[in-house]
């Protein structure tokens, strides 16, 4: 391309480089020299904006028209209102699959405010090519309700006042754009410095190209370079000094001299760059040592964190085991409380039975006392007639003795029942105290859990 001389080959005019890229200034090719259409069997365009009919025709012979552009219009209208394309996926295959299934994949997020006219227009754009909005011309798009308003029409839109007018302080005011921090390129970020000097990039150090000398001069310089290749600089200078202008080589000699000066400058520049590379290598080694030190520190921190994590895991296991033991103890305490309450209920029932029995004995005691009183009165009455009723007195005495014995037996029974009642009362108080203690322990256990 550097020495091409044909209208069918793109020419190279200039070339230069920086720390990262090689820049080539090529001939400008605006295009537009062909007429007609070219058949294409592959999908062309940005994946998120390709219409489904383009994907369906991929690899086959088919024809599609301007309706594919109206599909793209629907895509970027959706993107402007929502913030992302409607059929985006993490992979290219996923995006194409969603585009082909656009009838079911087109959704509008609920958290984005959008008018029904806007949704209807987007659905009309993102539909099949047979019924897509715009397939019959742009007039159908202009008549859509989304564009109907009282402020402007498509004929007066150039004279209408825009809804937002930015305030500019000068012609180059860029305050309405996000600030981008410019970062100076660091060659060490893009090129890994080799441990040993290889010299493979030396032919490109300081490389530039200019096409101002023309095609003929380049071929002459090439021959002259071959003739002086490998000779000392002093010999080359001597040969240049002894060159004559009779053979028409003045231009060639001058160009060769420029090339020689360029080689000298390149040598100086190469030495300077070697020095810079050595310094960069030294800085890289220092950075490597610092990173190694930081890595060791991070490794030590990671080891300590692993130890803490292991300790926390062990403590968690111990706490879990303790919780399980407390839960089992809680279940056992609940069972003890249930049994104590059952015993207390039984003691209360037995106490009530003893009270009823004691009341019955007391009633019998009162009845016996009444009988004794009556018998005493009978005895006193019969003692007056003792002489006449000896047999009756003997029987009365025997009855009296029997009643006295029954009364004594009743007193003993009453005393026994009173003693049993006191014992049952004591046992009931003890059982109630035991239930209260168990309830307190259960409450403390629940608080600890």
From TrEMBL:
Domain Protein kinase as annotated: residue spans: 1-147
Coiled-coil regions, chain positions: 263-364, 393-427
One GO CC term on file: cytoskeleton
The protein's Enzyme Commission number: 2.7.11.1
Lineage top rank: taxon: Eukaryota
Gene Ontology molecular function, alphabetical: ATP binding; Rho-dependent protein serine/threonine kinase activity
SMART domains per the UniProt record, alphabetical: S_TK_X, S_TKc
Full protein name: non-specific serine/threonine protein kinase
Alphabetical GO biological process terms: actomyosin structure organization; cortical actin cytoskeleton organization; embryonic morphogenesis; mitotic cytokinesis; regulation of cell junction assembly; Rho protein signal transduction
Pfam family of the protein (one): Pkinase
Signal peptide segment: none
UniProt KW Kinase keyword: yes
Domain AGC-kinase C-terminal as annotated: residue spans: 148-219
Keywords, sorted A to Z: ATP-binding, Coiled coil, Kinase, Nucleotide-binding, Serine/threonine-protein kinase, Transferase
Naturally occurring in which organism (per UniProt): Gongylonema pulchrum
Keyword Acetylation: no
């Amino acid at each position: 391309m550097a020495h091409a001389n044909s209208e069918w080959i793109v020419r190279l005019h200039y070339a230069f480089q920086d720390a990262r890229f090689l820049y080539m200034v090529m001939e400008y090719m605006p295009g537009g020299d062909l007429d007609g259409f070219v058949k294409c069997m592959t999908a062309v365009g940005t994946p998120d904006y390709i219409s489904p009919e383009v994907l369906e025709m991929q690899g086959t012979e088919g024809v599609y028209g301007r309706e594919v552009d109206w599909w793209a219009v629907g895509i970027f209208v959706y993107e402007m209102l929502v913030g992302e394309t409607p059929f985006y996926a993490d992979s290219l295959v996923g995006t194409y699959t969603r585009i082909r299934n656009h009838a079911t994949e087109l959704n509008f997020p609920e958290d984005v405010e959008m008018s029904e006219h806007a949704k209807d227009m987007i659905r009309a754009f993102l539909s099949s090519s047979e019924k897509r909005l715009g397939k019959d011309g742009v007039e159908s798009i202009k008549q859509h309700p989304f564009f109907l308003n009282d402020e402007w029409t498509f004929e007066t839109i150039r004279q209408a006042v825009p809804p937002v007018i930015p305030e500019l302080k000068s012609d180059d005011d860029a305050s309405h754009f996000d600030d981008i921090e410019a970062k100076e390129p660091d060659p060490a970020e893009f090129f890994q410095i080799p441990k040993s000097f290889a010299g493979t990039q030396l032919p490109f150090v300081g490389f530039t190209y200019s096409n101002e000398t023309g095609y003929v001069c380049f071929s002459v310089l090439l021959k002259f370079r071959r003739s002086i290749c490998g000779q000392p600089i002093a010999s080359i200078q001597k040969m240049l000094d002894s060159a004559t202008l009779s053979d028409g080589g003045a231009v060639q000699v001058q160009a060769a001299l420029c090339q020689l000066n360029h080689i000298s400058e390149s040598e100086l520049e190469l030495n300077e760059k070697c020095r810079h590379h050595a310094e960069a290598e030294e800085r890289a080694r220092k950075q490597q040592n610092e990173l190694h030190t930081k890595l060791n520190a991070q490794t030590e921190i990671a080891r300590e964190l692993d130890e803490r994590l292991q300790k926390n895991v062990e403590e968690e296991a111990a706490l879990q085991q303790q919780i399980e033991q407390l839960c089992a103890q809680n279940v056992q305490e609940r069972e003890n409380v249930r049994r104590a309450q059952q015993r207390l209920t039984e003691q209360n029932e037995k106490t009530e039975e003893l009270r009823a029995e004691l009341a019955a004995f007391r009633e019998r005691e009162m009845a016996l006392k009444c009988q004794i009183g009556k018998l005493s009165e009978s005895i006193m009455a019969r003692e007056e007639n003792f002489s006449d009723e000896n047999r009756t007195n003997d029987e009365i005495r025997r009855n009296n003795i029997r009643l006295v014995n029954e009364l004594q037996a009743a007193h003993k029974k009453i005393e026994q029942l009173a003693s049993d009642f006191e014992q049952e009362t004591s046992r009931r108080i003890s059982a109630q105290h035991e239930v209260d203690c168990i309830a307190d322990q259960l409450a403390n256990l629940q608080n600890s859990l």
